[in-house]
């Protein structure tokens, strides 16, 4: 069996440090490159995220002169992001005990994903990384992103278990034939989730 892990708020608590840093960097980048004030830049960041599922997709649609790779790099300031790490409880022991190969599938860029795995001390547990810039800039939950990930790892969906904090991302995984695990604070179920866990280390059970 192959485990497909999300990164942010699955392997580490991104809401405590990473997401605020990334959001602030996005707003600053939009402010500079679209010549906006802070409030207008922040509003566009949020609006594109709501309308398209990712701010970058809004940029690609409405501002085609801007370089999405430059945007991704600027919005993931690695030195600042690694100043605080908040790994999920028993992260290393959980990954060590799970049988089968493990892969990372994230909407973040590859450099960010590699840095986070290294800083969390878990790089050795992963056989590959599918990031937004390895799947033709198509983020989850678009099915084209999942198919690109499966091609990259040379896997079939039915061979995979996907572990995610986002039920929207699990919906696509389920439709493609993966088994799914939803990591969430409560035990409320959803048709997209074959299993619901409150802590990552519950996977071992």
Attribute tags:
about 200 residues, DNA polymerase, domain 1, 2 domains, six-stranded parallel sheet, Rossmann fold, 6 strands, alpha/beta
Q: How would you explain this protein's 3D organization?
A:
It is built from 9 helices and 6 strands, in the order E-H-H-H-H-H-H-E-H-E-H-E-H-E-E. With 205 residues, it is of the alpha/beta class. The chain has 2 domains: 2-13 and 86-204, HAD superfamily/HAD-like (Rossmann fold), CATH 3.40.50.1000; 18-81, DNA polymerase, domain 1 (Orthogonal Bundle). Strands 3-2-1-4-5-6 form a 6-stranded parallel beta sheet, sandwiched between helices. Helix 7 links the parallel strand 2 and strand 3. Helix 2 (38-52) crosses helix 3 (55-62). The longest helix has 16 residues, at 18-33. The chain starts with a strand and ends in an 8-residue tail after the last strand.
Write the layout of secondary structure elements.
Layout lengths: L1 E4 L12 H16 L4 H15 L2 H8 L5 H7 L3 H4 L9 H7 L3 E5 L4 H11 L7 E3 L12 H11 L6 E5 L2 H10 L2 E5 L11 E3 L8
Parallel strand pairs: 1-2, 1-4, 2-3, 4-5, 5-6
A few lines on this structure:
Helices cover 43% and strands 12% of the residues. The chain has 205 residues and is of the alpha/beta class. It has a six-stranded parallel beta sheet with strand order 3-2-1-4-5-6, sandwiched between helices.
């Amino acid at each position: 069996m192959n485990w497909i892990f999300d990164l942010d708020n699955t392997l580490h608590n991104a809401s405590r440090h990473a997401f605020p840093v990334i959001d602030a960097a996005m707003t600053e980048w939009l402010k500079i490159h679209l010549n906006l004030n802070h409030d207008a830049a922040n509003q566009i960041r949020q609006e594109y995220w709501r309308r398209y599922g990712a701010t970058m997709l809004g940029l690609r649609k409405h501002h085609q002169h801007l370089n999405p790779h430059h945007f991704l790099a600027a919005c993931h300031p690695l030195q600042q992001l690694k100043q605080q790490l908040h790994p999920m409880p028993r992260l290393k022991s959980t990954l060590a005990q799970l049988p089968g190969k493990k892969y990372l599938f994230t909407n973040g860029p590859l450099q960010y994903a590699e840095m986070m795995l290294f800083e969390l001390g878990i790089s050795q547990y992963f056989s590959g990384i599918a990031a937004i810039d390895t799947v033709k800039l198509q983020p989850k939950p678009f099915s084209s992103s999942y198919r690109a990930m499966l091609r990259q790892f040379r896997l079939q969906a039915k061979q995979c278990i996907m572990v995610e904090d986002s039920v929207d991302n699990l919906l696509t995984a389920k439709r493609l034939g993966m088994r799914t695990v939803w990591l969430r604070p409560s035990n409320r179920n959803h048709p997209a989730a074959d299993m619901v866990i409150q802590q990552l280390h519950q996977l071992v059970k």
